[in-house]
Amino acid sequence: MRLPDEPELPLQINVVPLIDVIFAILTFFIMSTLFLTRSEGLPVNLPKATTAKQQQVPTKITITVDEKDQVSLNRKPIAVDDLTAQVRTLVGSNPEVLVIINADEKVDYGRVVAVMDRVRQVKGTKLAIATQRQ
Asked: Is the pLDDT of residue 116 over 70?
């Protein structure tokens, strides 16, 4: 119960805690979207090409050749001699598989051709070479 001689205080909404919460949520969403980028291969310096296009294929197999000439199949190190059998196992009977080669720009051309030759021995594979748009 209010006494008649007390002054009536106006209601106030303090927005400072609300702003703090909004900025905390905003920071969370910004940080979480930075980790949503999908990387199929190991980090290498891809060569640049002005005609590079984004490929949309449901199933991908990624072969990475780093600057130390280490070959990896879906991020797992592999010998070049075993590449054909492993790709054949991964492809199976699926005709929609795209094999993407991520080769560092410092890798010898002959090494990339050797990897491509091993992949092309598997019937029905589609081959692509990863580049960065200039």
From this structure: yes
- Can you tell me the distance from the alpha carbon of 80 to that of 72, in angstroms, rounded to the nearest whole number? 9
- Strands 59-65, 126-129: pairing is unpaired
Distance CA 126, CA 105 (A): 22
Tens-place pLDDT, residues 40-65: 556 667 777 777 766 555 678 888 88
pTM over cut 0.70: no
Task: Report the alpha-carbon distance of residue 128 to residue 46 in Å, rounded.
Answer: 13
Q: What angle do CA 111, 42, 38 make, to 5 degrees?
A: 135
Domains and CATH numbers, the chain: 48-133 (3.30.420.270)
Q: Quick one: pLDDT at residue 10? A: 80
Burial 98-110 (b: 16+ CB within 10 A, else e): bbbbbbbeebeee
